[in-house]
Amino acid sequence: MGEITDKLKGGANKAAGRMKQQSADPAKRDEGRVQEAKGVGQTLKGKVKGAINTL
């Protein structure tokens, strides 16, 4: 169950990060890059959990 939650949260963070990167404010763009990276990590975490659960 945790794998699906992690994948969904990861997708949401990636999308929010991409939106923030469209801002004219340089600080907001940097925040968007960090948030997108966090989303990538969460998605990967969900995939790992899924792989472990199939063992």
SSE run: HH
Low-pLDDT regions: none
Helix content class:
over 70%
- Which outline best applies? elongated
Mean pLDDT over all positions: 95
Description of the molecule:
This protein has 55 residues and is mostly helical. Helix 1 (2-20) packs antiparallel against helix 2 (26-53). The chain is built from two helices and no strands. The longest helix is centred in the C-terminal third of the chain and has 28 residues, at 26-53. It has one domain. 85% of the residues lie in helices and 0% in strands.
What is this structure, in a nutshell?
The chain is built from two helices and no strands. The chain is mostly helical and 55 residues long. The mean pLDDT is 95.
How is this fold's topology laid out?
Layout: H1 2-20, H2 26-53
List the main descriptive attributes of the protein structure presented here.
55 residues, mainly alpha
